[in-house]
Amino acid sequence: MRVDQAVPADAVGRRVSCGDERATVRFVGPVPPTAGLWLGVEWDNPERGKHDGSHDGVQYFTCRHPKGGSLVRPAKVSFGVDYLTAVQQVYQVNSQEVLTEGSSESVHWLAVKERSLERLPSVLLSRSDVNGPGADGEIKKSTPNVQWLDMSGTLLSGWEDVAAITRQLDQLEGLQLSNNRLCLPSDISAHCQAFCRLRVLALNNCDLTWPQILDYARMWPKLEDLCLEENNITELQRPDGVLQSLKCLNLSSNPLVQESVLSIAALPRLEKLSLSQTGLSDIRFDDAAPGSQTAMFPALTNLNLDNNNITEWCVVDELGKLSSLVHFSCRHNRLVSSDGNYKTASQMLIAKLGGLVSLNGSEIQPEDRRGAELDYIKMFGEEWLKAGGGSQPSSEFNRQHPRYLSLIDKYGAPEEGELKKPEPFALKNQLLKITFVFPDDPERKPIEKKLPASMVVQKVKGLLYRLLKVPAADLKLTYTSLKMVGTEFEIDSDLKTIQFYSIEDGDQVLVRWS
Fold it and tell me: Is the pTM of this model over 0.85?
């Protein structure tokens, strides 16, 4: 068959662009009864296609998606350009200017431009049509100082193409290859030198599986940061002999088999793990008893479990077994407290995870931790008493509240008057009758108000400003409870609710100002 000059002889398997879309060539040839050459392509975005590779009852090629393929004319697509041409296009270095102008000024301008390329610490070719290295040695000569290279969404067809580029970049430490479809090289070991300095690698949305990652990982002996969002990663296997230098791993937006997460628990240097939007609902560290530390994930300091299906507090207790965890994000799960208040749920997370420094991206202040832990003691104090109280409550209570005894050691056991009985969800917006008194101004009469339990202290101070004409910033609030006469409790945060401080119907709030 005579192949059109516009179509490379090795076109099948090559990557092409068509407007903003990317595809892989699966077929080259005639499609009767039409004349001329056609390309059968499988689109990265299957919604762009029309069929599965068949036309008028003839199967010209196959696609994974039933509507992922199309037949297009060669003139409609681009097979791309080499690395140096892509760099010149992106950074606007026009080598033809010397020929068209011929002046010494334009020769000097071009030389300056080329020298500027030599100094580039990073090259950004995202969504360009780069398809390979070009002439041997030209990359090393033109951009020798590149440390970060972005080739996401390009026309690279395989890891051989990538390696042919990176082996000429002696300083390369960071590589972005997201939104590509790269074939496995025939000999992985032959390309290790091409990635010998690589520390950071992004392979988001590359249609990869975990076994493929483990195969490729032999090329990345010093990799520390690996981002694998939106792939086809399901069941994880142990990375024996590979990824042992990994510090950061992002597996977000992959449909993980949750029982397999522990397969990566032995990675010795893994500090940061993102499992956001992976369908996770449970995790167990059965090597450690409640309240003890697990040997798994020994270096893990930062864990992201946003946008999952976590509903049980026992999962949080399991995370409390992680010896190094200090930064935790758990947004958009379904963890709820007995009062249905999301702020109370955040307090419980802080109380249950004693080593946290930040939660959901916010630093935990010492007063926040103290308040959360004291409230936790009150919240489950009645349950603790029913379980036997003292230093040896029932094993079931210890399983559900593994930090409770350590919190009692820290703050002391709760007295009966402090115990906070669980309230139904509907009570969180109940009205509380509160009497404001002014101990430093005995001539001022007490003021009685009914306020919603969900009202934040800042708004309470705003109300007092309108009544007293004293700036809210100058007001200092404490309260006394009918259950503990003579004890004065500090209200130390403007952003917390009345309910957070366990203020009840009939309590007094003492108002002072400077």
Answer: no
Nearest-angstrom CA–CA distance, 365 and 493: 11
User: d(Cα 463, Cα 371) in Å, to the nearest integer?
Assistant: 24
Please provide the DSSP assignment of 363-384 as one string: E--HHHHHHHHHHHHHHTHHHH
Identify the band that residue 113 occupies on the pLDDT scale cut at 50, 70 and 90.
low
User: What pLDDT sits at residue 420?
Assistant: 58
What is the mean pLDDT of the segment spanning 276-283?
97
pLDDT in tens, 286-345: 999 999 999 999 999 999 999 999 999 999 999 999 999 999 999 999 898 877 777 889
Instruction: Please tell me the distance from the alpha carbon of residue 361 to that of residue 327, in angstroms, as a whole number.
Output: 8
Query: What is the residue extent of each domain of the chain?
Result: 15-76, 430-513
The answer to whether domain 430-513 has CATH 3.10.20.90 is yes
Could you tell me the fold of the domain covering 15-76? Answer: SH3 type barrels. (2.30.30)
Q: Are 482 and 409 in contact (CB under 8 A)?
A: no
Q: What is the CA radius of gyration of the chain?
A: 32
Tens of pLDDT, residues 122-141: 999 999 999 999 999 999 99
Q: Which position has the token pair 């690589």?
A: 198
**DSSP conformation letters of 62-131:** --SSTT-EEEE-GGG-B--EEHHHHHHHHTT--TTHHHHH--HHHHHHHHHHHHHHHH-SEEE-TT--EE
Distances 495 to 433, 458, 492, 512 between C-alpha atoms, Å:
21, 6, 9, 19
Cβ pair 210, 235 in contact under 8 A: yes
Q: CA-to-CA distance for 188 and 479, rounded, in angstroms?
A: 69
AA identity, residue 238: R
Cα 7 to Cα 77: distance, rounded to the nearest angstrom: 10
Checking DSSP bridges between strand 130-132 and strand 122-124, what pairing results, if any?
A: unpaired
Report the distance separating Cα 44 and Cα 38, nearest Å: 19
pLDDT digits over 165-193, tens only? Answer: 999 999 999 999 999 999 988 889 889 99
